[in-house]
Each structure stands twice: as C-alpha cells, then as structure tokens.
Amino acid sequence: MRILIVNPNTTASMTEKAATAARAVAASGTEIIASTSHMGPVSIEGHYDGALAIPGLLAELRERQPAGYDAAVIACFDDTGLEAARTFADVPILGLCESAVVTAGFLAQRFTVVTTLERSRVLIDNLVRRYGMGDRAKVRASDIPVLELEDPASGAIGKLRVEIERALSEDGAEAIVLGCAGMTDLARELQEIYGVPVVDGVAAAVKQAEALVSLGLSTSKRGSYASPLPKPFTGAMSGFSPVLKVG
Asked: InterPro entries annotated for this entry (predicted)?
C-alpha cells in the first residue's frame, strides 16, 4: 500500500523527519510518500497559522491524487485541516493528535501530552477533550518554538525533558505523548530514559492507516464527511471549487 505523509507547513526538513519516522515503523509492503506544502507558514503554532495552512494541505492532497495513495497522514499535531481533508478525500486520512491519544489510551489510564508553546497547548487540550480523553490526559507546554526543534543548539530537548519529568512526578502520567511532529525522532530515546511508553503521533498514525487500509475501511461519505457540494469559489480560492463527480 501507499501512504502519503503531508506536512502542512512549508519546512522541508520537518517533512523528511516525519518521513523517516514513518518508514521506520511501516510494514515491508508499505511505501511512504512524503509531501511538503508549497504555500503557508513555515511552522504551525496556533489557530491563525493553522487556518492559513489548510489550502496548501488540500492542494497537496489533490496534486498527489493522479499517482495514487491508499491513505494519508497529516503531519501536524494540531490535526490541521483534518476535517476538511476527510471531506475532500476518498481514502482514510489520519491526524497525529487523534492517532496518538487513541494509542496512548490503549497503554495507560493516565497520560500527558507534552507540546511546544502555550497557544498550542490550549488548542491541543481542546482536541484531546473532543477525542474523549479529557478525563485521562493532561497537556503541557514546554515553551519551545517549533523551529527550535530543528536546532540542536537551541536547548529545546532540555526544556522538553523538564516537562516530561514534571508530567511523571506531578500529573501521575503513566505514558507520554509527544505533541509535535518535530519531536518524532525523540520517542525511542525518551522511552528508554524514562521507562514509560512514549507515543509519537507519526508512527501511531502510520500504523493505524495501515490497519484501516488492510481492513478495507475508509471515511464515511454519508453526513458530515460527504464530498463537498459543487459550487463556484471566488478570488484566490477559485482553484478549490468542488466539481461534480461523474459515475
């Protein structure tokens, strides 16, 4: 099967990091295709960035359709554009936050999501509650701008570890979820250090995508995820106008 990893920000190094994590866990018959948005913010930190990243995300999903993919993973822990992508696509679309917290729920009664900035903490806390894990999970911010995760000299890893240690001692966390795609390469190392499950959203989403494809399941097109109605879009959005599907 072919799984498309779409980075909805425009930083190619983050795409490659996510693709490496995806290939490390993918089954032998799974091909990972990595794609970077060509318009929008260089990182996604909060609602404004996320809203402006969605057109680029949808454009990547559309432009990759002719080559074909069996499922797609949106490589941002804010689950940027997830609902719109599920409406647009005819294959399973996975978000990192939803995939990670569901996976953590299999492993622990209490877990903590450690993310980057406070503005992202609030957004992710709302997602965790929406996904039904609000009574079992806490979300912490480590005061790390996303792009600092790309810089070994930034001190970001030290800040992340401080919050993980607080989560274990103060929250009673039995597992840790890494709340940013830029942290994906740290999961195994941190799991060995702290001796608890450390869940990376990229890996979790890829394995769940494989399961859905293997089961022959995809997003329902009845109701909320029904394909968009054909209508004109104007201005800069004119290229996104839905067209009537034939057959």
From this structure: Asp/Glu/hydantoin_racemase (IPR015942), Hydantoin_racemase-like (IPR052186), Iso_Racemase_Enz_sf (IPR053714)
Q: Which of 48-57, 71-80, 155-164, 205-214 is predicted with the least confidence, judged by mean pLDDT?
A: 155-164
- Find how far residue 52's CA is from the centre of its chain: 16
Tell me, what amino acid is at 184?
T
pLDDT digits (tens, 9 = 90+) for 67-117: 999 999 999 999 999 999 999 999 999 999 999 999 999 999 999 999 999
What does pTM read for this prediction?
A: 0.94
